[in-house]
């Protein structure tokens, strides 16, 4: 039988509907129906056991991740990356402890990889009660740290890619401390996701040590990557480098001073605000960021769109709407920082 996502499967569709009804409350049953059909189609199309195991384990890991984070959806969270090899007596470890404690005191929760080093420092500063640990099963270096060992918010992953989704999807900000290949991999993925608009705009703070780890990286980026034209100057808006944990905290909190969140609707970008902008402020944004707009379009105030009904707790927020070109995501970060000054 050639299964289809449209309702043309006859008895199979009726049996799937019966199964969904049989198990009790199922949210968004049409989506669940498509997931069941995807599983059946995979069984039809793929005979290679390893591929089916990957699909199965991926679904299990993502389901469990969603379940763990769901009850904390209204809490803002900061993901911390950094070396597993940082010792507890190193200054950068203590800086991370202070940084995460400041954030926890402000009501944020902390997400780390759950291992030793900087990850342990992040969980230690925030405290177990304010922490998540998204751990990866490795033959070395990555056992859960003692802060999170018995924590119900400890998740153990088989696949790096599922773990990376949790790091970025759930975070309102990302802080990166010095580290090795794993840290750089995680940081560069966030750069790419923000630069291409595949994740919502968020502060990306590179917190430096006394030896200038990120200063050396910045020199390479400026001289080689920018120098060869592989990135644009506006991409430098994506990140902030600082050695001061207080400045790092301010960078995160001030990003949400007036900016709340955004949503795309076809060609329109809807930006939700904590307070309404004046006509003069809107004109100032248009004047300073013309590259972001389609020709002969303007920034306007707008009511909630019908498709935003699935986020009822946000409907009362003021909004602005613009025809964004889906190219200048670095400028979008700068745009958000500008409207936070109003």
UniProtKB/TrEMBL annotation:
Give start-end of the signal peptide: none
Stated EC number for the protein is 3.2.2.4
Q: Which reaction does it catalyse?
A: AMP + H2O = D-ribose 5-phosphate + adenine
**Membrane-spanning regions, if any?**
none
Pfam families in the record:
Lysine_decarbox (PF03641)
The record's annotation in NCBIfam families points to: Rossman fold protein, TIGR00730 family
Q: What name goes with this protein?
A: AMP nucleosidase
Biological source species: Geotalea uraniireducens
């Amino acid at each position: 039988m050639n299964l289809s996502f449209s309702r043309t499967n006859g008895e199979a569709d009726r049996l799937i509907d019966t199964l969904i009804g049989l198990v009790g409350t199922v949210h968004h049953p049409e989506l669940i129906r498509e997931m069941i059909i995807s599983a059946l189609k995979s069984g039809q199309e793929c005979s290679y056991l390893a591929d089916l195991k990957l699909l199965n384990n991926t679904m299990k890991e993502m389901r469990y991740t969603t379940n763990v984070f769901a009850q904390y959806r209204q809490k803002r969270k900061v993901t911390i990356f950094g070396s597993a090899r940082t010792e507890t007596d190193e200054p950068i470890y203590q800086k991370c402890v202070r940084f995460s404690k400041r954030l926890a005191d402000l009501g944020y929760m902390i997400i780390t990889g759950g291992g030793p080093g900087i990850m342990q420092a992040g969980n230690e500063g925030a405290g177990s009660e304010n922490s998540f640990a998204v751990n990866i099963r490795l033959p070395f270096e990555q056992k859960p740290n003692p802060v999170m060992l018995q924590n119900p918010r400890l998740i153990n992953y088989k696949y790096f890619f599922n773990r990376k989704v949790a790091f970025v999807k759930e975070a309102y900000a990302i802080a990166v401390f010095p580290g090795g290949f794993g840290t750089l991999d995680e940081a560069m993925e966030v750069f790419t996701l923000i630069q291409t608009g595949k994740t919502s705009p968020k502060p990306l703070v590179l917190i430096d040590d006394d030896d200038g780890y990120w200063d050396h990286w910045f020199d390479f980026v400026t001289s080689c990557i920018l120098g060869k034209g592989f990135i644009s100057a506006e991409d430098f808006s994506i990140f902030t480098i600082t050695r001061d944990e207080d400045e790092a905290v301010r960078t995160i909190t001030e990003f949400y001073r007036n900016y709340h969140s955004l949503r795309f609707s076809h060609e329109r970008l809807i930006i939700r605000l904590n307070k309404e902008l004046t006509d003069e402020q809107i004109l100032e944004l248009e004047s300073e960021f013309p590259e972001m707009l389609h020709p002969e379009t303007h920034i306007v105030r707008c009511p909630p769109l019908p498709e935003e009904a699935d986020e009822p707790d946000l409907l009362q927020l003021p909004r602005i709407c613009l025809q964004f070109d889906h190219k200048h995501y670095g400028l979008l970060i700068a745009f958000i920082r500008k409207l936070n000054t109003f």
